[in-house]
């Protein structure tokens, strides 16, 4: 894992998006993520936005509540499958990395704990926890080369 920025506390504004939210087991979750990205990219109005992978609820032994979305300039209409949403404004514990996601998550969580930062969470449910793909997944197939912003909203 290579860290480019952070860990640090950053502030983000509200960011509108269109996304697809599903429940899936942890095992196979990244294949589901990749399929959802492909599905979103079929919409012409989502060709230029930042792609992210949001984890609403994490249960490594049970169901994962996940969402894949693309940030848009403004609120756009969705449909029965692709729905509008907002990555909420606030202060986030964040870092930018490439490589191993599990290690990056552990690094960020350990840092937040050591800094005494309270996360916006209730058990395994998070107010906002996501990975934003700063490298466009459509142009770089090697996931280990992606620059990823990992962020968890603070309480």
What do you see in this structure?
This protein has 155 residues and is α+β, with helices and mostly antiparallel strands. It has a single domain, classed as Multidrug-efflux Transporter 1 Regulator Bmrr, Chain A (Alpha-Beta Barrel), CATH 3.20.80.10. 17% of the residues lie in helices and 43% in strands. It has an eight-stranded antiparallel sheet with strand order 1-6-10-9-3-4-2-5. It has a two-stranded antiparallel sheet with strand order 7-8. Strand 7 (121-122) and strand 8 (125-126) form a beta hairpin. InterPro entries: AraC_E-bd (IPR010499), GyrI-like (IPR029442), Reg_factor_effector_dom_sf (IPR011256).
Helix coverage percent? 10-25%
Q: Estimate what percentage of residues fall within beta strands.
A: 35-45%
Can you tell me the CATH topology? Multidrug-efflux Transporter 1 Regulator Bmrr, Chain A
Give the assembly state of these chains: single chain
CATH class category: Alpha Beta
Instruction: Please report the distance between the alpha carbons of the first and last residues.
Output: 27 Å
Shape-level CATH architecture: Alpha-Beta Barrel
Total count of domains: 1
Number of helices: 2
Gross morphology: globular
Structural classification:
alpha+beta
Largest beta-sheet details: 8 strands, antiparallel
Mean pLDDT, to the nearest integer, reads 94
CATH homology group:
Regulatory factor, effector binding domain
Q: Tell me the series of helices and strands, N- to C-terminal.
A: EEHEEEEHEEEE
Q: Taking Cα atoms only, what radius of gyration do you get, to the nearest Å?
A: 15 Å
Strand order of the largest sheet: 1-6-10-9-3-4-2-5
- Extract low-pLDDT stretches: none
Total strands: 10
Organism: Paractinoplanes durhamensis
InterPro entries: AraC_E-bd (IPR010499), GyrI-like (IPR029442), Reg_factor_effector_dom_sf (IPR011256)
Domain AraC effector-binding: 5-155
Protein name: DNA gyrase inhibitor
